[in-house]
Write a structure and sequence with these properties.
This protein is an alpha/beta fold. The chain has a single domain, classed as 3-Layer(aba) Sandwich (Dihydrofolate Reductase, subunit A), CATH 3.40.430.10. 18% of the residues lie in helices and 33% in strands. The protein is built from 4 helices and 10 strands, in the order E-E-H-E-H-E-E-H-E-H-E-E-E-E. It has an 8-stranded mixed beta sheet. Strands 2-8 form a two-stranded antiparallel sheet. The model has no long low-confidence stretch (mean pLDDT 96). The structure holds NADP nicotinamide-adenine-dinucleotide phosphate. The site of NADP nicotinamide-adenine-dinucleotide phosphate has 28 residues, from strand 1, strand 2, strand 3, helix 2 and helix 4.
């Protein structure tokens, strides 16, 4: 089994999206996402796939979850369950769950690592949220703060967490 990782950017209230889109444009977070996920498998829900501006993400094994597999025609692997998506990744070292909320909700309990970009703002009109994180189950292994600047309207922090081992 590969290591299951979640990668997400969420605001101070865990908001992750609005009207099927992201709530912010943070180019350095996008670069960080690309650097971390390139060369690996990425699993996403059908709505997140449809929100990608240029379709499948290059240099990654793209796996899209849907209950209606015949509706997806792009150059991706299509699966109808989380288990099926993981079975396609049995040769992978690490598989990234890249959203959206429905996929995060199902996979947070089984994930080993959490890459969280915390965007330091509250977006009042968000409609999609990451599930509540029980931080007692996680050890923080990295924290990197970034201020707002001319290209980044909000300050943000990269956090990496590893799930604590069972006693
Ligand atoms: N901030 C971030 O880091 C981040 C990351 C990703 C996405 N987002 C945002 O999140 C929002 C989309 O999230 P969402 O929760 O609405 O949708 P989603 O999780 O992207 O997609 C949901 C769809 O995926 C399919 N699906 C999910 N679990 C499945 C399973 N176990 N088996 C089969 N199919 C399954 C279903 O597709 P069918 O309806 O086709 O059956 C379901 O309707 C957007 O606003 C997006 O921009 C934010």
């Amino acid at each position: 089994m590969p290591k299951i990782s979640i990668i997400v950017a969420a605001d101070e209230n865990n908001a992750i999206g609005k009207n099927k889109q992201m709530l912010w444009h943070l180019p350095y977070d996008l670069k960080n996402f690309k650097d971390l996920t390139s060369g690996h498998a990425v699993v996403m829900g059908r709505r997140t796939f449809e929100s990608l501006p240029a379709g499948a993400l290059p240099n990654r094994k793209n796996i899209v979850l849907t209950g209606v597999p015949e509706a997806i025609i792009d150059n991706v692997f299509v699966c109808t369950s989380i288990e099926e998506s993981l079975s396609l990744c049995d040769k992978e070292e690490e598989v990234f769950m890249i959203g959206g909320a429905l996929v995060y909700k199902q996979t947070l309990p089984m994930s080993d690592k959490l890459y969280l970009t915390r965007v330091h703002h509250v977006f009042k009109d968000a409609d999609t949220f990451f599930p509540e994180i029980d931080f007692t189950q996680w050890n923080e292994i990295k924290k990197e703060e970034h201020p707002a600047d001319e290209k980044h309207a909000y300050p943000y922090t990269f956090h990496h967490y590893l799930r604590k081992k069972m006693e």
